[in-house]
C-alpha cells in the first residue's frame, strides 16, 4: 500500500514522463512541484516505489520511468474519477457535429471518427464495424513524430500490433471493464507484440442498432486522462443521439 506522498510523487512523475519522454529525477520533481521536502527525501520515496515495482531506472540514468504496474495504478485512479468534465465535452462539440453529418453512412462515419480521434489523441485510432465489414485506421503520421518511433524494432512491433488489432477487438469485448471500456497496458495486451504499447477499446452503438468499436493504440506514455475523456465523451454523444 502506497502512502499519500508516494501516490502524489508517482502521479507527478508519470505526468512528467508522459510530457517529456525522459527519465524523471528527484531534483526535477522538487524543482517543478515544490513539495516542501528535499530532493534526497523524494529520491528515497522513488527508491521505495522502484522496489515495489511501480518505477524502474533505465541504464545508469539518475531518473526513473514508470513500469506497467505504475501506469496501471495511475490509470485506475483516472478511471475512478470524473475526468469527463462539462468544459471538455463543450470543447469537443465541433467533432460531434461533424460526426452527426456522417451518421447515415457507416463508412463515412468510421472514417471521420478515426481521423478526428487520431488527431485529438496523437495516437493510432481504429473505428471498426464488424456487421458492415468496415475498419478504418488513422494516425500513422502522428505516431512517427513520437520519440519512441526512432527505434526500427519498435516500429516493427507497432505495425504487427496494428495488423492484429482488428481480429482481437471482438475478443476484447468479452473482457470485463469499466462501463465497457477496456484499458490494456504493456504486457496486459492480448497481442504478443504489444508489450511496449497501451490500448484503449470501447464498444460503441450507432442508430439502427449498429454496433462497433473505437480503439486508441499508442505508446505506454500516452495521455491516458485525455484519451479516456475523449472516449467517454464519444459514448455519451452516441447514447444521446
Give descriptors for this structure.
241 residues, alpha+beta, Arc Repressor Mutant, subunit A, Beta-Lactamase, 2 domains, 5-stranded antiparallel beta sheet, 17% strand, elongated
Descriptive notes:
- This protein is an alpha+beta fold and 241 residues long.
- The protein has 2 domains: 4-66, Arc Repressor Mutant, subunit A (Orthogonal Bundle); 86-239, GAF domain (Beta-Lactamase), CATH 3.30.450.
- It is 51% helix and 17% strand.
- It contains 10 helices and 7 strands.
- It has helices at 4-20, 26-33, 39-51, 68-80, 86-91, 93-101, 106-121, 140-143, 152-172, 224-239, and strands spanning 55-56, 65-66, 124-129, 134-138, 181-185, 197-206, 210-219.
- Strands 4-3-7-6-5 form a 5-stranded antiparallel sheet, with helices on both faces. Strands 1-2 form a two-stranded antiparallel sheet.
- Helix 6 (93-101) packs antiparallel against helix 7.
- It is elongated.
